[in-house]
Amino acid sequence: MGIEDAHRLYEAFVEQDPAEAIRVVEDVRASGVAQAQLFDTLYVPAMALLGGAWASGEIDEIVFTQASVIAEQIGSFVVPPAARQDTGVTLVIGTMQRDHHTVGKDIIAAALKESGYRVNDLGLDVRPAEFLERIEQTGARIVIVCAEMLSVAHSVVRVREMLTTGGHEDIVVLVAGSPFDADPALARSVGANGVLHGAESALRVVGKAATDLSGGEAS
Amino acid sequence: MTKRSSQVLMAEGLARTEQVTAAVEACYDALAVDDSEPVAHCLLAHLLLEGDFYDEAIAEATKAIELDPDCSPAYLALGLAYDRRGGMWDQSVLVWHELAEVVPDLVTAHVQLGEAFGAAQFEEEAIDSWKCALELDPKEPRAIYNLAIAALKREGMATALPGFRKAGELDPSQDDLFFALLGIKSVSDRPVDPAKVREDRSSRLGAAALAARADDLFVTAELVRMVLDEDPDDADALALAAFAYLKQEATNEAMACALRAIALKPDLATALYTLGVVYSRRAGLSKHAARVFIVFTRAASQHALAHVLLAESLLGLQRYGQAKKAYRVAIRLDPACVRARFGLAAVHLTEGLHAEADWEVRRAAYYDTRRQGSFWRLYDHYSEGGAS
C-alpha cells in the first residue's frame, strides 16, 4: 500500500467510477491492510488529494461535488465498523427482587452491549431463581446483580446461595449500586466477586472477569 | 396598562440598568407606600432571585400571585426560585404547569416543567413536556439535552450521544467557537460586497470570514476562490472553505478541504475544528474525532467548547473518566456552558452518581434561565395590561 493507491482512489472519485473505487479498496484490503486501517491509509490521503485538486483549480466545483458523492458511496467500505465485535461472552444482568431502580442497570447493560457482550437483561424485581434459570439457559458465567437500596443489597447473598445450591459455584457474581459503592465490605459479605462502579468500571471489571474465565485468552 | 407607582417605575429603571441594590431599596419604598401592588412584589422577587435569595424571592412572588393570579412574571420568578433552591419539586411542578397554561408559548415554562417532573421522578411527563417545548421551538437546546439524558437513562450512551450532538449543532455557540478562532465576535450589520474588498489575501480572507459569519456562504466561496487562485496551498483559505461546506451539509467536500489544509498546516485550529466535527458526525469515526479534538484542544485550549467537543468524542469511545476531565476543564473555563453541564451530568449517570447529575442539570438551568432574560418580556407584557 502506497501513495499510488491513494492516487488511484482519487482518480476513481474524479472519474466518477465507483466500481473502480471499490476495486482499489479491495486491492488494498487484499494486500493485507486491515479494515480498521483502510480509512487512514487509503481514504484520508485520497480525500486530501481531492481537496488539493479543487484548491488548485485542477477540478472545478461540479467535478468536486460529483467526486464527493462517489467518496460518500465508498465511505462505508473504508470506515471502521461502528459496532464493536462480538466478544462471545454471555452475561446476565438484573435488578434484585423488591428493587425497582432501573437507570444504573440500564446504563451498564447498554454499555456492555455496545462493547460486544451478549447481555441477557432480566429487568427489575428479579428473584434469585430467575438469575439461576437464565444462567442455566444461556450458559452465562458472569451475572451482574444491581441493588440501590441497602435492605435489598443485603439480600443479594440469596443469589450466591441459589447458584451454589444449583452447582454453579464458579459463576462470577458482580454487584452494582449505591450501597456497594458506599461500603466495599458489603459486596464480600453477599458473596460477590467484584463491584461495578458505573459503566466504565463495568467494562473494565467484566473484561477482566471474562479474561480470567477463559484462561487469559478472551477479552 | 397596569397602574404603577412612581417608586415602582424608579425601581424598574434601576433594575433594568442592573443597579440591583438601589432597585431593591426602591421596591421596598414602593411597598411601604402601597403593599398591594403586584408588580412591586414581582419585581422584588426577580431582584431577590438575581441575588440568589431564594426563600425571600418565593415569599415575594407568592404575594404577587395572591394579589393577582394573572401575574405571569411572578410565576416565572416563583418557579425559578423553587428550582434553584431545590427540594421543592412538587410546588415547582404546579407553578410551571400554571405558567404554561397562562403563557402557552413560553418555551422555558415547558422545559422547566419537564425538569421539575424529572426531579420528581415523573419521567414520562417530563419527556412530554420537553417534546412540547420542541414543538414550540425545535431548536431549544435544553429540551434536546434533557431528552438525551432521558435516552441515556433508558437505552444507554449510544442512543443519547446523537442527542447531545444534535443539540450542539443547533446551538449557535458552536459556530461562535469557529469564528472566535478567527477573531470575529459578532455578525456585521453591513453585508460584504466582494467588489469592494481590497485585492490582497488578508482583506479577502477577513471579508470571507465575515460573510460566513453572516451566513452569506456564496460570498465566502467567491472570496476564498480568489485567494486560492493566487495560492492553492493557502491553508487558512482551505479551512474556511471547509467550514462553508460543512455549513451546507456537504461533509465530504468539507473533509477534503480540511484534510488538505491540515496536510499543509498540521496545527491549524480552524481546519482541525471542521475535520473533528465531520468525523464526529460519522458512525465508526469516534476514535478519529477524538484524535483530532485532542490536537484541537491544544490549539484552542482557552475555549470551553473545544473541550466539550473532545469530551463528546470520548463519550462515543466509552471513555467516561477522560470525558469527565474534559467537561470539567470546559466548566472551569465557562461555568455557564450548558452543553458541558449536561454532558457532565451524563457522565455522572454512567457512574451511578445521580445526585451529582441532578446538580449539574440544575446548574445548567440556572445559567440558561439567567441568560434568557425571559422575566422582562413577561413583565413588560403584563405591565402593559396583557393577560400574560
Describe the structure.
The complex is a heterodimer of chains A (219) and B (388). Chain A is of the alpha/beta class and 219 residues long. Chain A has 2 domains: 3-78, Methyltransferase, Methionine Synthase (B12-binding Domains), Chain A, domain 1 (Orthogonal Bundle); 90-213, 3-Layer(aba) Sandwich (Rossmann fold). Helices cover 58% and strands 11% of the residues of chain A. Chain A contains 11 helices and 5 strands. Chain A has helices at residues 3-14, 18-30, 35-56, 61-78, 103-114, 128-138, 150-154, 157-165, 178-182, 184-189, 199-213; strands at 90-95, 118-121, 142-146, 172-176, 194-196. In chain A, strands 2-1-3-4-5 form a 5-stranded parallel beta sheet, sandwiched between helices. In chain A, helix 5 links the parallel strand 1 (90-95) and strand 2. In chain A, helix 3 runs antiparallel to helix 4 and helix 5 (103-114) packs across helix 11. The longest helix of chain A has 22 residues, at 35-56. The radius of gyration of chain A is 25 Å and the shape is elongated. The mean pLDDT of chain A is 92. In chain B, helix 2 (20-33) packs antiparallel against helix 3 (38-50), helix 3 packs antiparallel against helix 4 and helix 14 runs parallel beside helix 16. Chain B has 22 helices and no strands. The longest helix of chain B is centred in the C-terminal third of the chain and has 19 residues, at 354-372. The model of chain B has no long low-confidence stretch (mean pLDDT 91). With 388 residues, chain B is mostly helical. The radius of gyration of chain B is 24 Å and the shape is globular. Classes of the chains: A alpha/beta (219), B mainly alpha (388). The interface between A and B is large, with 44 and 45 residues.
Largest sheet of chain B: none
* CATH topology-level fold name of the largest domain in chain A: Rossmann fold
Q: What is the rounded Rg of chain A?
A: 25 Å
**Oligomeric organization of the protein chains:** heterodimer
N/C terminus separation of chain B: 12 Å
End-to-end CA span of chain A: 30 Å
